[in-house]
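Researcher: Please predict.
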Amino acid sequence: MIHIPAHLSIVIPNVRDNPIPEVGIIHHLLAEQVRKAKIVEQVEASGTINPTTETSVGTQVSGKIQEILVDYNSIVKEGDLLAVIDPSTYESTVVQQEANLLKVESEYNNQLRNYERYKKLYKQELVAKSELDDAETAYLQAKARDATFAMSLRAIRL
């Protein structure tokens, strides 16, 4: 950057006296040697700053926030822990789902044994085909419920 300080005075006639001003007269001019200097430029402005990227933040589980780990306008990266959710609600949901899964697994095992019994009885021609079909349907429904509850529990634990 080059800085050239100079003192320049220009006189312009008063506009009230003369509606068309004339070019003023230079009284004196000071010149300095050319030298390097830093030019500082500051700008003051008012307005709204908008983000270039806006990100929504959410959770996979609901619950009360136990602790907030960042402040407003903090710089964060993907994967940073922002808050801690009170685990009591989540933990009780897991315990309840585990109990439900045990119940459903028990029902599934019972329906499987029942279906195996009906298959043997049907081979011996001691029960009708419709009874075997009903036992198979109950077994398959119990199997589906078992798989659904197991997947639900896995999803909750993630």
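Model: The longest helix spans residues 87-123.
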